[in-house]
Description:
Layout: E1 21-27, E2 33-40, H1 42-58, E3 64-71
Antiparallel strand pairs: 1-2, 1-3
Amino acid sequence: MFGERKPMPKGWKNPLRQPLYQVVVERTSDGVHQVVGPAIQQNVAEELAAAIRIQIAAGNEKSWSNPTVIRA
Length: 72
């Protein structure tokens, strides 16, 4: 009963062993780097950085620049 483990499904990855990433932006007012959002999977962090770039290019976001994805 206790102590028995079922095998994990094929392709399963332990979420605690996955590397996490964060998006960092540069504040235009003072040039300081600021972390935006929590540590997340790389593909999600890249999508967030792309969305921030779009908003910067559209002129909607004026206080941030240079969104970059880094490993947390």
